């Protein structure tokens, strides 16, 4: 991929599907943990995300995994990951595909 290749939200979300929450076994995208995703003109990426619970023991591991995956995308200069609990995560945020797999719908 050339230096001028366009980085897209779809590319980033696909890469983030490789980050699996070890406790739940579902990726951070399908869990609905990614609240906001911005690609800046300088090819830095901003992600606002949450955890399933504020006291999640894997918080730092997941934040680092998300940052690492974004930085693996050719052309990405840097990644900023912001953790938020507003609004709090609920199982409603899980993708339809995973809800079906888990028998939630």
UniProtKB/TrEMBL annotation:
Pfam families given in the database record: FeS_assembly_P (PF01883)
Gene3D superfamilies, per database record: Fe-S cluster assembly (FSCA) (3.30.300.130)
Top-level taxon in the UniProt lineage: Archaea
Record-annotated MIP18 family-like domain positions: 9-82
PANTHER family the record matches: FE-S PROTEIN MATURATION AUXILIARY FACTOR YITW
Protein name: Aromatic ring hydroxylating enzyme
Organism field: Thermococcus litoralis (strain ATCC 51850 / DSM 5473 / JCM 8560 / NS-C)
């Amino acid at each position: 991929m050339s230096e001028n290749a366009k980085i897209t939200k779809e590319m980033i979300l696909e890469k983030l599907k490789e980050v699996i929450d070890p406790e739940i076994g579902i990726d951070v995208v399908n869990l609905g943990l990614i609240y906001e995703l911005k690609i800046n003109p300088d090819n830095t990426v901003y992600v606002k995300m949450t955890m399933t619970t504020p006291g999640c023991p894997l918080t730092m591991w997941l934040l680092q995994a998300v940052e690492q995956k974004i930085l693996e995308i050719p052309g990405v200069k840097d990644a900023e990951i912001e953790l938020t609990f507003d609004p709090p995560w609920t199982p409603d945020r899980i993708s339809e595909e995973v809800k079906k797999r888990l028998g939630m719908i």
